[in-house]
Design goal:
With about 350 residues, this protein is an alpha/beta fold. It has a domain at about 1-180 and about 235-265: NAD(P)-binding Rossmann-like Domain (Rossmann fold). About 40% of the residues lie in helices and about 15% in strands. A 7-stranded parallel beta sheet has the order 3-2-1-4-5-6-11, sandwiched between helices. It has a two-stranded parallel sheet with strand order 7-10. Strands 8-13 form a two-stranded parallel sheet. α2 (about 40-50) links the parallel β2 and β3. The protein is globular, with a radius of gyration of 19 Å. The structure holds nicotinamide-adenine-dinucleotide (NAD) and uridine-5'-diphosphate-4-deoxy-4-fluoro-alpha-D-galactose.
């Protein structure tokens, strides 16, 4: 099979390209490098010993997509490309709707014209909205989202659902990621955010390596066991393997199918700090700060459906997530540019 991977130079995309190649597929990566470095793909080539064909371009460029589908015999698409910073999405809603919603429209239109109907989409736990009971289960309706990023994911889920209902040839997986962390065990690829990290894991790792002085823990008075927020952190390699399983599943299942990809275990911010300290053998200086606007106290996955229908479970534990993050950070203190 040849898989087009949009956003394949990014954090989750690059790890997924490794696992797609390991599973015997061919890949073609399409990425505009707005939030990634082509160096990640060179590292993927090093890890897998295989060439990674790469087109630098934008998913909103319909002429480019037409060319890509005409020149390559694509069987399926794994679609990561998009913008993902929650806070930035509030400042730049049009950019988020354009890249995430319009970009997906242009992509699926090109797929339809090319006769490619198998698609795996990067969705998010954020589509359950602000009021959903935990753990989140796929039978819950999509909820009220609190920012343009989350709304863009919910809109894309809806448009893909309508599309699948319009034509029985479509086979679409909506993969709802919880909180991906970690890095490939080689330490060659990992998460390399531009600027100050928004997310907890890369921030902790940059404090550990001395790039940042201390972590701010946003909120200490939540109604959780230790007062800090709880999330369902999963290893990015487990998440990548979920995409391989989803593609296998779609080979025999038309229609649209949502799956939670998480461990099912809530972990607090303080537990994350302690676990990282164990892995790196250094203290992580932190201070408590006010709550961050928009944060939910606690959410985690019910991942039973992925286990039963995809045969997927997250196998790598928290210690492994931390050890692999630390190896990546230590070997690449300045990320791909270092
Ligand atoms: P990332 O920013 O590392 O990867 C996204 C990639 O898409 C980047 O390489 C970027 O250059 C590329 N891109 C962006 N807009 C593009 C466009 N218009 N055309 C072509 N390429 C474009 O992010 P990631 O963490 O790897 O996330 C991948 C996907 O998973 C995103 O859709 C994100 O919303 C989703 N997701 C991520 C998380 C998370 O916590 N990381 C959680 C839930 C969902
Ligand atoms: N946190 C801190 N300090 C920091 C950064 C984060 O205390 O410097 C806390 C947050 O307040 C939150 C927890 O760490 O309690 C996790 O925060 P992240 O920003 O790492 O992750 P979120 O759960 O906020 O959001 C992530 C992705 C979203 C996605 C969501 C659900 O960023 O894109 O998971 O999948 F929608």
């Amino acid at each position: 099979m040849t898989i087009l991977v949009t956003g394949g130079a990014g954090y989750i995309g690059s790890h997924t390209v490794v696992e797609l190649l390991n599973a015997g597929n061919n890949v073609l990566v399409l990425d505009n490098l707005s939030n990634a470095s082509a160096e990640s793909l060179k590292r993927v080539e090093h890890i897998t010993g295989q060439a990674v064909p790469f087109v630098q371009g934008d998913i909103r460029d319909s002429a480019l997509l037409e060319r890509v589908f005409a020149e390559h015999s694509i069987n399926a698409v794994v679609h990561f490309a998009g913008l993902k910073a929650v806070g930035e999405s509030v400042q730049k809603p049009l950019e988020y709707y354009d890249n995430n919603v319009n970009g997906t429209l242009v992509l699926v239109d090109a797929m339809r014209k090319a006769g490619v109907f198998r698609l795996v989409f990067s969705s998010s736990a954020t589509v359950y909205g602000e009021d959903a009971p935990v753990p989140y289960h796929e039978t819950l309706p999509r909820g009220r989202t609190s920012n343009p990023y989350g709304s863009s994911k919910a809109m894309v889920e809806q448009l893909l659902t309508d599309l699948a209902h319009s034509d029985p040839r479509w086979a679409i997986a909506l993969l709802r990621y919880f909180n991906p962390v970690g890095a490939h065990e080689s330490g060659l690829i990992g998460e390399d955010p531009f600027g100050v990290p928004n997310n907890l894991m890369p921030f902790i790792a940059q404090v550990a390596v001395g790039r940042r002085e201390r972590l701010s823990v946003f909120g200490s008075d939540y109604a959780t066991a230790d007062g800090t927020c709880e999330r369902d952190y999963l290893h990015v390699v487990d998440l990548a393997l979920g995409h391989v399983k989803a593609l296998d599943f779609l080979a025999n299942h038309a229609g649209v199918h949502a799956f939670n990809l998480g461990t099912g275990q809530p972990v607090s911010v303080l537990q994350m700090i302690r676990a990282f300290e164990q892995a790196c053998g250094r203290a992580i200086p932190f201070e408590f700060a006010p709550r961050r606007a928009g944060d939910l106290p606690a959410f985690w996955a019910d991942a039973t459906k992925a286990r039963q229908e995809l045969g997927w479970v997250a196998e790598r534990d928290l210690a492994r997530m931390m050890a692999d993050t630390w190896r990546w950070q230590l070997q690449n203190p300045l990320g791909y540019g270092g």
